[in-house]
Design goal:
The protein has a single domain, classed as 3-Layer(aba) Sandwich (Rossmann fold). Helix content is about 50%, strand content about 10%. It is α/β, with parallel strands linked by helices and about 230 residues long. It is built from eight helices and five strands, in the order E-H-E-H-H-E-H-H-E-H-H-E-H. Helix 4 packs across helix 7. The structure holds thymidine-5'-diphosphate (TYD). Thymidine-5'-diphosphate binds near residues 128, 131 and 132.
Length: about 230
């Protein structure tokens, strides 16, 4: 089972007994009942920063659900494996990621938000518009229709878009891991995916925070911290 599946819990908001807190209870500050997604082309370096974000709120007594797409439930993880390993056309890719997303929303994301948890999701629907839409050239209107059916209005409250040039991302990937079906794509595919993210960010500037992921790890962390500070998180 993936390390991303399930709940990493340090106590729920308002349960009054987090970290063994007795009379005074824990000081809980942060975005309770909040849905945050993290996006970017492969090689943008999201993962370690998602871990740090999770720790930031767990240490304050908030329940954090750290999850990913495609994935996050047993069914969705099976679909992820198929998506990453089998050749298929763009419509099949889109249907698989939205089927996985539906299960993830119903089983994990919506219940967690209802409990007041912080949901940290490594990729969500912006990835579908970027990869299947901009990357593969699949019809954006069909994706928008699927988004409406599957999500019933649910969108992340905040999206960190880790942006960097595709050439730099390719160098980082080459140094880090064996490529999956998407990571084997050429640089021009990732240039289109990047443009897909840019269009989504442009359409919803209040939801997106663009992170310059070409900078050092510490500088990226500082950008994240600054964006959270502005929100009082
Ligand atoms: P990711 O979890 O970032 O890969 P890794 O485990 O290597 O860090 O993402 C898995 C891949 O799935 C990634 O290449 C993008 C792709 N993907 C889509 O094509 N469409 C989608 O809707 C989603 C969520 C991911």
């Amino acid at each position: 089972m993936s390390r991303f599946v399930g709940v990493e819990q340090a106590g729920s908001v308002g349960d009054g007994d987090v970290d063994g807190g007795a009379s005074a209870g824990p000081v809980v500050t942060g975005p309770g009942g909040c849905f945050i997604s993290i996006e970017g082309i492969d090689g943008a370096g999201k993962t370690s920063h998602v871990d740090a974000l999770a720790e930031r709120w767990r240490s304050r007594g908030l329940e954090v659900v750290r999850t990913r797409e495609p994935g996050g439930t047993p069914l969705a993880e099976v679909l992820r494996e198929q998506l990453l390993t089998r050749e298929m056309d763009a419509l099949s890719e889109a249907l698989i990621v939205f089927a996985a997303r539906r299960d993830h929303l119903v089983q994990v994301i919506e219940p967690a938000l209802a409990r007041g948890a912080v949901v940290l999701c490594d990729r969500f629907t912006d990835a579908t518009f970027a990869y299947q839409g901009a990357g593969r050239g699949f019809d954006l209107n069909v994706l928008a229709q699927l988004e409406t059916w599957v999500q019933a209005g649910r969108q992340p409250d905040l999206t960190f878009w880790f942006d960097l040039p595709p050439e730099l991302a390719a160098q980082r990937r080459a140094a880090a891991r064996d490529p999956d079906r998407f990571e084997q794509q050429a640089v021009d595919f990732f240039a289109r995916v990047r443009e897909g993210y840019r269009l989504r960010a442009q359409a919803e500037p209040q939801r997106f925070v663009c992170i310059d992921a070409a900078l050092s790890r510490d500088d990226v962390a500082a950008q994240l911290a600054a964006a959270l500070q502005v929100r009082g998180w």
